[in-house]
Design a protein that fits this description.
The chain is mainly alpha-helical. The protein has four helices and two strands. The mean pLDDT is 80.
């Protein structure tokens, strides 16, 4: 994995486990505590996923805009993720907001399935 992405394993390990600091002109490499290293790891993963999400959105938009048939039908062909509370209106959503909206959609779907199944069962029992 590291060779294909041009990331040297040693450099990644150093970046995730140490920080550089300068005191009185001396450059020190200080190891992170376990919890700090975990935070750095999680932050890097979040940044990578966010960058990948932005790239996918960019490539998808680029592909759609360069296709005349899709451009003519842009009003009917889209990908939407509902913000169930409806009070957030961002020009561009982040990967984190996408995940929140996706989780909300899954919860809403589960709720709808559960309630409709319950209603259907109660209706069947009433007959």
């Amino acid at each position: 994995m590291f060779n294909t992405n041009k990331v040297k394993e040693e450099m990644l390990l150093e970046a995730l486990t140490t920080r550089k600091t300068v005191t009185v002109g001396e450059r020190l490499i200080v190891p992170y505590k376990l919890a700090e290293a975990g935070t750095v790891r999680d932050s890097m993963a979040k940044s990578l996923y966010s960058a990948l999400f932005d790239w996918i959105v960019f490539r998808t938009n680029h592909a759609l805009l360069n296709n005349k048939d899709l451009e003519d039908n842009s009003k009917t062909l889209s990908i939407g993720v509902l913000d169930i509370f409806g009070f957030e209106d961002y020009e561009n959503n982040s990967f984190e907001q996408f995940c929140i909206n996706f989780a909300n959609e899954r919860l809403q779907h589960y709720f709808n399935q559960h309630i409709f199944k319950l209603e259907q069962t109660q209706h069947s029992q009433a007959d």
